[in-house]
Specification:
By secondary structure, the protein is α+β, with helices and mostly antiparallel strands. It contains seven helices and 14 strands.
Length: 295
Amino acid sequence: MALASVDQNPLSEDDLKHYQQRGYLHLEGFVDEEILGGLQRAAAEFVELSRDLESSNRVLDLEPSHTAESPRIRRLNSPVDNHDAFRAFALEGPGAVLACAVLGGPVRYHHSKLNFKWSGGGEEIKWHQDIQFWPHTDFTPLTIGVYLADVDELMGPMGVLPGSHQGPLYNQYLDSGEWGGAMNPQDVAGIDLSKMEWLTGPAGSVTVHNCCMIHGSVPNNSSNPRPLLLQTYSAVNSFPIAHIGANGVTGHLSGTVIGGSSDQRITVDGREILGAPDWSRAGAPTIFGSQQEAE
């Protein structure tokens, strides 16, 4: 997929070095007012739609206290698949351009979500790493977040632990053996939370974090929601591993290649595989047909 005609080099060499060494970027006011306004209006449409719901559905995840008069949305699932403004931003606009700049070439889009973190105690996101939720064939995946409102310290901004993307990958199962989606208390006790960087900023500010980064956020104790639009990408020849975590439920646009094409090349245990084309949408030919056409 081609990129929109926006600045194709939004990052400096220092930005790229910072990302490689510390595992994140914090770009205040990165998204311009016109594009930001479109994203904000799209988010507001789903708030209005939520007023007709009494419980969560496949698109909107609601807090238990949600009502029509006082909507409280936890998450809009797969916004890229559900509104053109989100699709354009992530697949053609600034989100896509930034992902290609950080990863140094074409990228593969994986999934998106919009976490609202509502006012007056909107739920915390416990300390965790992303890659365990949707393992890939390498560690290039990253997530780009966009604050759709001004965010200060009281609103539960994202916190990241610089350099942790180069450290251990933690078990995120509960002691019962069930999936918990967060680091266990013993592991959290072993990290220095005083080194956490809290990424605040005006609406339109952007965060970027590597899939192995320890990150999370505290409850939103302010009087305003903290909507954070998130979209995940990997290098073009990084592939999600099927049948683990969320890799099978990411939306129909998952796998879209942006800014170029994929040669289907993958390295496993040091051995390079030049894989067959992606037949997931068109259907796979038989080996007989492929070999006869090659003659």
